[in-house]
Amino acid sequence: MKEQNTLEKVIGAPAQALDQTIETTQKVKEEIVDKGPVKKAREYWELLGPGLTTGASDDDPSGIATYSQAGAKYGFSFLWTAVLTFPMMALVQEMCARIGMVTGRGLAGNIRVFFPRYVLYFCTALLFGANVLNIGANLGAMAKGVQLILPTLPFAYLVVFFALSSILSQIYVSYQNYAKYLKWLALVLLSYVFSTLLADGINWREVSASLLDIKISFDKDQILMLCAILGTTISPYLFFWQTSQEVEEAIEQGGSSIQKRRQSIDAQAIKNMRIDVWSGMFLSNLVMFFIIVACAATLNKAGIPLELFVRWQVIGRIFYLQLE
């Protein structure tokens, strides 16, 4: 009998150890994951959505080109714009988000309802023209980015590939999955931050001083650069994007009609939206800040001012830390 009990204990020992491990893991999960900083971080991540992806979209290739040129040509002189434009950008995007949430319509839909038809046509024509040029620049920049790694691939084929991929993704991928992919892809922008922090020879005291040292020279080139920075930071397409995404989020949560979408808005929803929008705009301007710092500390110091149509090979080398 004793031998049988001993044999049962020996055979059952692995199972008991596994049970104890599972129980201990569950307790650790309850203490660490479901409570404290990890739980707060997870709740914060779940709050993020349209604001985060809108902020990330502001750092598109054409925007990165503008920030790179500002740093390469003028050093840290325009670094203060990263701080100044943050509240401006966040407030405008919050207004657009509120419009979408409260009315249940996108920005174009509200213009159609509350303004004459010619105003809608005029705004749509301007937006269409600006978006065509912007998307064209972005497709070309993405193609050039691929050629940094695979230089033998034809530029035109890469442009067509990225264009078709974007169109087909928007048509055949559900909004829920598409929004989730965009949300995670927004974290790719942090590579600019880490690349800059890993670079050698950056005088962070000079960087800090430049944030408060506002210098504006009223010559043509600097005025154009300032306009370019403001234009690519507070962009009209972001207004439409933000409003439309708030509506899409409401539809995804069951707001199939304007009436339902409007009824689902409460004080907590507005608070969550504000956290989302300000977080997204902070990420956008944080990336802008580090891009200017990286180009100022490398290209500007080396005397390589980038022109409006920047050389993507040089930019790629900066952020891959291959600049000699």
TrEMBL record:
Keywords, sorted A to Z: Membrane, Transmembrane, Transmembrane helix, Transport
Membrane topology: Multi-pass membrane protein
GO molecular function, one term: manganese ion transmembrane transporter activity
GO CC annotation: plasma membrane
TM region positions: 78-97, 118-143, 155-175, 182-202, 222-241, 277-299
Any one GO biological process: iron ion transmembrane transport
Localisation per UniProt entry: Membrane
Name of this protein: Divalent metal cation transporter MntH
Organism: candidate division WS2 bacterium ADurb.Bin280
